């Protein structure tokens, strides 16, 4: 009898631990629309990017349709947890892939930078503008692949953008590669349309991709995707990066068993850390993602603060 009780107690502890891990991960949106279901029919949504505008959160994200093509969608929320879908806001019927949005609002104009691949996965970075974040005007390629022999001569994509109001400069980070592993590049613009890669060489390696860059205080934070979870790097000026490895590990629930794809760091109105959003990978092929969220607790905040203090 005592042995059975111990076995039962052990099972309850394991079950409780598993439930705690699953509660930590909040699955917010699963692929449900025809433009989100993916060819396998189980859904594939990821690459969230969020702006807090007039008391509500606007989230642009990518969804893979039943036809295999990716499109950019919009959802809205007041609390960052419960989201209302608004449908597809940017598509290109001639392109295979339209995804990975990064949106900034400058002087009343929304600028969306995104990855487009006309065929296969031949990614380049495009821009579109909007007055309301819903209806967009496309302006074409702004970050093309590099020249033959350059580090980014094969693909460039998954932009992360911010605007420096003090210097009136747009900054864009992106991942790219030639034939080897991915690296991270940086570009600058005065008008958001015409860009210059600065420097011409990558600023960060580590096969980093699906990046998200934010200014936190007077320093910079970069998140990048991985099969073990969300990884972290920090910088003083946004060009000299120090890698700190895994920051938010997968919870080992079924929802994110195979990694965290295209993370996004959400800061509150006061610039304080709030949560990380990402595509939780439920399939090893990374084509069955659900947009999920993990709150940045005291332990994660402390680790980030320690990383920033190293500079």
Largest pleated sheet: 4 strands, antiparallel
Task: Using the CA coordinates, give the radius of gyration.
Answer: 20 Å
Order of helices and strands: HEEEEEEEEEEEEEEEEEEEEH
Query: What general outline do the C-alpha atoms trace?
Result: globular
The CATH topology assignment is Tachylectin-2, Chain A
Helix content: 10-25%
**CATH class call:** Mainly Beta
Number of helices: 2
Kindly report how far apart the N and C termini lie: 59 Å
Strand arrangement, largest sheet? 1-20-19-18
Measured by DSSP, the beta-strand proportion falls in over 45%
The CATH architecture assignment turns out to be 5 Propeller
- Contiguous uncertain segments of 5+ residues: 1-22
Structural class of the secondary structure composition? mainly beta
Name of the CATH superfamily: Glycosyl hydrolase domain, family 43
Count of all domains: 1
Tally of extended strands? Answer: 20
Mean pLDDT: 91
Explain this structure to me?
The protein has one domain: 5 Propeller (Tachylectin-2, Chain A), CATH 2.115.10.20. It has helices at 2-24, 298-309; strands at residues 26-29, 45-53, 56-64, 70-77, 84-90, 97-106, 109-117, 123-130, 137-143, 155-164, 169-177, 183-189, 196-197, 212-216, 219-224, 229-235, 241-249, 260-267, 273-281, 289-295. β15 and β16 form a beta hairpin. The relative contact order is 0.13. Strands 1-20-19-18 form a four-stranded antiparallel sheet. It has a four-stranded antiparallel sheet with strand order 2-3-4-5, with no helix packed on it. The termini are far apart. The chain contains two helices and 20 strands. With 311 residues, it is mainly beta.
